[in-house]
UniProtKB/TrEMBL annotation:
Feature: compositional bias, Basic residues: 26-35
Annotated protein name in UniProt: Transcription regulator PadR N-terminal domain-containing protein
Lineage of producing organism: Bacteria, Bacillati, Actinomycetota, Actinomycetes, Streptosporangiales
Occurrences of domain Transcription regulator PadR N-terminal (ranges): 43-111
InterPro entries in alphabetical order: ArsR-like_HTH, Tscrpt_reg_PadR_N, WH-like_DNA-bd_sf, WH_DNA-bd_sf
Organism superkingdom: Bacteria
Native source organism of the sequence: Actinoallomurus spadix
Pfam families for the chain: PadR
Biased composition (Basic and acidic residues): 1-13
Region described as Disordered: 1-35
Amino acid sequence: MRRGSTHREERAAFGDWGPGFGPRGRGGRGGRRTKRGNVRAAILALLAERPMHGYEMIQELENRTGGLWRPSPGSVYPTLQLLEDEGLISGRESSGKRLFALTDAGRAETEAAAGRTPPWAEITEDAGEAATHLHSAMGRLMMALRQVMHAGNEEQRERALDVINDARRRLYGILAEDD
């Protein structure tokens, strides 16, 4: 802060977000962000299907959203602990991992939520069809690129690089088109 200025005056100079934040919002990243999922509801819904361990839940949510939502261990494991503290789930050691299952109280809560759209479905519905398939398409593209770079000769690797650069230019061209 400048000498003699107030916090309000400093913030006013930078707009609503204050220093370090641009017109696009926090972090300055801009663009449409994928909706965050409800980790608590997702965990309960998954455990209504079968017992799982934490990492398995993370993978399952990523798979069910086509890669659009992969909750972090930093959100899943504390939520598991909270649900266990609330008596909605119980955990036990199994093959060196902690396996979680619904308790009777947890089953009652999931039954009360029956008929609601699962949290992972809300994310894919909001994202649209193209975004839902993006993760798997990118995975297949990267696999093909790795194979060319590993097994191809120098000329093939150069052609692969040309394809990637052309794709990048064409993608930006899509954004540059008039609606």
